[in-house]
Design brief:
By secondary structure, the protein is an all-alpha fold. It contains ten helices and no strands. The C terminus is likely disordered.
Length: about 230
């Protein structure tokens, strides 16, 4: 994969400054997966014979998570704020310069550092989701509270997995999968520097993008296969 000179320069500089020699991308991926799965498993263990009405809250919580994803991405990730400036720095100033519209693929597992949230985010996420789950349990049932937390962490894990898949090489089994091809195109357009602050803020499913009129397709947002990129 031949990178644009500015992207190649930024990646080399970022790796030297921010990715230590002991960093393991696959360990990072496993930590995120196991950590989130542990919370989901604990909640599932605590849920006791849920009613149909309680289970009916899962799609409601899923939609809520989709809205949080949308507004978190559209807001602090792309607009600097005093309290959440670190999100803007990592996402707009680093992620979008490491991966551009014409350079979306990771070159090695060490580049996972620029795709996945830092593992510490699991703790921050739990600190935000658990109190809401407790409040929901207080006004409804314990099952509904645990379902909220389980759905929230399931969505977080889905976000991480899908975002990771979008940045895998197209020559890989995951990166070239037809299953995620359409969603990858949606994310690809968001990485166009001219459009990243106005369209395609959902990473998982563009539900909120559709609701708020920010879902867009562009002729430039196409996935180029390895054969097309290097014709014989």
């Amino acid at each position: 994969m031949e990178l644009p000179p500015k992207v190649a320069e930024f990646r080399a500089r970022h790796r030297g400054r921010n990715i230590g020699p002991r960093y393991s991308g696959w360990l990072h991926f496993a930590t995120t997966t196991v950590g989130a799965a542990t919370v989901i498993g604990f909640c599932a263990w605590r849920i006791d014979r849920p009613s149909v009405l309680e289970l009916a809250m899962i799609p409601v919580f899923f939609l809520f998570a989709n809205l949080v994803e949308y507004f978190g991405h559209r807001g602090p990730m792309h607009h600097r704020s005093r309290l959440l400036g670190i999100l803007f720095e990592r996402h707009s100033q680093q992620h979008h310069r490491f991966f551009t519209h014409d350079a979306m693929e990771t070159e090695s597992a060490r580049d996972f550092q620029m795709v996945l949230f830092p593992p510490i985010m699991l703790g921050f996420f739990l600190g935000g989701v658990a109190p809401i789950g407790y409040a929901i349990a207080a006004v409804s049932t314990a099952n509904v509270g645990y379902l909220f937390v389980a759905t929230g962490f399931s969505y977080f894990l889905l976000y991480e997995w899908m975002h990771w898949a979008y940045h895998r090489p197209l020559a890989s089994r995951i990166g070239g999968s037809r299953l995620i091809a359409r969603l990858r195109r949606h994310h690809l357009q968001h990485h166009d520097i001219e459009q990243m602050t106005v369209v395609n803020f959902n990473i998982t499913f563009p539900i909120a993008d559709w609701l708020f009129g920010t879902s867009a397709r562009d002729s430039r947002a196409t996935v180029v296969s390895p054969a097309e990129r290097h014709p014989s």
